[in-house]
Amino acid sequence: MTDSQRKPPFQSLLGVLGAVGGWALSQYAGAALWIPGIASFAFLLLFAKTRIRPPQFAGAIGLAAGHASWFLVAGIASGEWMKVGLDVLTLTVAIAWLWTRPGRGSALFLFAVELVSLAVNVISITGVPIGSSEHRALTVHCVFRALTIAALAVGLWKARRTSPASDGHHTADVG
Questions:
Q1: CA-closest candidate to residue 143, choices 21, 38, 46, 51
Q2: How many CB atoms lie within 10 A of CB 141?
Q3: N or C, which end of the chain is more exposed by having fewer CB within 10 Å?
Q4: Which of 47, 46, 97, 41 is nearest to 69 (CA)?
Q5: Over the stretch 10-68, which tens digit does the pLDDT of each residue have?
Q6: In sequence order, which residues have a C-beta less than 8 Å from that of residue 87 and are 6 or more positions away?
């Protein structure tokens, strides 16, 4: 491996921390992690192995789509659309917009949806007993929302670094 191909040391550390964090979450959340985890993995694998990969923000779209899949399965299985319908609708609209029109506006819309939803989940989690099935599910929601927000931040940072106007001049938002 040449010097230009070497990854910064923090990337290896982040990989190890991610693996440890994922293992710890799986130990705590158990089955609550299966549907969104498997769905997100499937979306990310599909993006990596096929031509349907979104032009930008594939990580954020894959994570959000996996999370939305969990809401969809919950709505179908339980029939309680009042609990999950708004999440399904807002995530679907945000994902579709980001996928079809990637840009600052669409990324910030999904970012705002996830941030507001994360705040609601954090408030909700404080009122349920630790270890309960509801606490485990809310923990997974919080983690998926935080990961999506992080993926969006990285995507926005990469887009800014690669845009022709990254010299500090303002450009029109194409998203």
A1: 21
A2: 23
A3: N
A4: 41
A5: 667 777 777 777 777 777 788 788 889 899 999 999 988 888 888 789 999 999 999 99
A6: 68, 71, 117
Nearest Cα neighbor of 140 from 3, 26, 5 is 26
- Kindly provide the b/e burial profile for residues 34-45, where b requires at least 16 CB atoms within 10 angstroms of the residue's own CB: ebbbebbeebbe
3-state secondary structure 35-95: HHHHHHHHHHHHHHHCCCCCCCCHHHHHHHHHHHHHHHHHHHHHCCHHHHHHHHHHHHHHH
User: What is the secondary structure of 123-159 as a DSSP string?
Assistant: HHHTTS-TTSHHHHHHHHHHHHHHHHHHHHHHHHHHH
Cα 29 to Cα 142: distance, rounded to the nearest angstrom: 12
> Is the distance from CB of 39 to CB of 66 less than 8 angstroms?
yes
pLDDT digits (tens, 9 = 90+) for 52-107: 888 789 999 999 999 999 999 989 998 989 989 999 999 999 999 999 999 999 99
